[in-house]
Amino acid sequence: MERPSLEINLPDTHEEGKLYVVDSLNNLNKLNVCPDGSQHALDEEEDTGGTGENTAGSNIRNQCLFFVTFILTLIVSLALVSFVIFLIIQTRNKMDQISSRLISEKKNIEELKKMNNMILKHLNQSGIKE
């Protein structure tokens, strides 16, 4: 039952132990400070060596993608609004046509009633003379 001595390899791994402790503290700090979503971004930065080149490029790419999506959304919205305005104008024109046709038909019906009354009067007058 020999217990391994930690002092045997301690001088050789002193620098390695410091790095391990620093990495552990950094990981613990990340877990305490960063929410789950931002942990992934920190891991990516760590993979690039902390230069931030990858995340800067990713941010620019995300911003470009956002603006392209935003512009496309605006264009589609403008097209839909234009189409709705076109439909409203077309509907109004059709309603104007129908209302003018109804007014014209109303005038024709009134004229036909007048002619019917005149014919009835004429028939009543001619029937009385016989």
TrEMBL record:
Question: Could you tell me the keywords of this UniProt record?
Answer: Membrane, Transmembrane, Transmembrane helix
Where are its TM segments located? Answer: 65-89
Q: Which domain of life is it from?
A: Eukaryota
Known Pfam families for this protein? Answer: DUF4577 (PF15145)
The segments labelled Disordered in the record are 37-56
What the entry lists under InterPro entries is as follows: DUF4577 (IPR028099)
PANTHER family for this protein: LEUCINE-RICH SINGLE-PASS MEMBRANE PROTEIN 1
- Name of the protein described by the UniProt record: Leucine-rich single-pass membrane protein 1
| UniProt lineage | Eukaryota, Metazoa, Chordata, Craniata, Vertebrata
